[in-house]
């Protein structure tokens, strides 16, 4: 039923129907453009032919002695020209060479001694064609034998009849030629443009109905024209959308799995949190110090479990921003990475007293994801980690109203095939077996702060730069706080 519904409008408003109408219109315009000047040219040639015949008759009549030409011969000569009278003017003398019984009233005058414009010739030709053929034309042209001019009076009817015969012949031939040319142009355009566009449209409609079906992706024809380029670009766009839909499907499946284990995991973490709180009551300073860190880590883990599904729902909680000391946050990240038993070295260069206007938990997650990726990259070397070579470095500084954080490592760097989709879930993983969720989550959290995270090219290993701008605070409110302080 859907195909039948789309086929009916195509026959009325499709490209083929529009192309046929336009081709027919242009063919008619071409025929008119050829016919109109051709008719004017025929009109002038016909009059010139009659004037040429009048020249011959004028020579005969002028050579004969006066009043010596029989009336019957004079009429025959007039009939051969199709004229009512012929007048020859030489000098001051205007001589009537031949005339019918009653000279007719002249309705139109044409002087062939002048060079008329195409517009006037067309107007005169159509004036005769639609005059009804009852008028009389006074035709004036150059006279033979040194005369000043010869004047001929003829009926419009023979000219009009000749113009109709010429029009029928001209229009018939023009229509045949134009129809053949128009048909060839129509077939050529239909084959080169309309059919490829129709196929492209059908593929787009089919892909729109089932974008997860790889068979619905356009197969480029390989042509180098605009349609071929459009097919290639559409195929690339459809493949990218198809891959993204598959990734979204995987993400949805992951979210469903996390939803099933989220409840039990939160209960386990809650039990571990209670146990750690009991350890905090120990009198042993070492146990007390470790238990406080354990409590903080478990609190973050419980909070992460509470918001695990937010990524699958395509949203993170809004940042709860406040001034955070960078040095302390970086130390927490180092301890969470547990580098004491690792061969990977840690170094940091943080400006003294550097603070950032950010959500501490979300910024901790960003730095932890980047640090964990760097640690895994260094520990996954074929020859193993080397303390003299492998290092994770964190740099922090302020540039005006922007805080810049850089996390770099001396590992093998980011593969070229991962750079195009580095911050896309399931596509930007830099190691075998990875999901790429760490960088995707980091990018989302940084963008929620109005900042930016990107990979710095041309460095040893991988260097990620995070820029976090300060929030715009009302100056009047800040001034009021200072006055109260």
From TrEMBL:
Catalytic activity as recorded in UniProt: ATP + protein L-histidine = ADP + protein N-phospho-L-histidine
CDD domains per UniProt: HATPase (cd00075)
Gene3D superfamilies: 1.10.287.130, Histidine kinase-like ATPase, C-terminal domain
Keyword Cell membrane among record annotations: no
Gene Ontology terms, MF aspect: ATP binding; protein histidine kinase activity
Domain HAMP as annotated: residue spans: 191-246
Enzyme Commission number(s) from the entry: 2.7.13.3
PANTHER family: SENSOR PROTEIN CREC (PTHR44936), SENSOR PROTEIN RSTB (PTHR44936:SF10)
The entry's keywords: ATP-binding, Kinase, Membrane, Nucleotide-binding, Phosphoprotein, Transferase, Transmembrane, Transmembrane helix
PROSITE patterns for the chain: HAMP, HIS_KIN
Species this protein is from: Terrihabitans soli
Domain Histidine kinase: 260-472
Domain of life: Bacteria
EC top class named in words: transferase
Keyword Chaperone: no
GO cellular component: membrane
Transmembrane segments: 20-43, 170-189
GO BP term, pick one: signal transduction
Protein name: histidine kinase
Subcellular location: Membrane
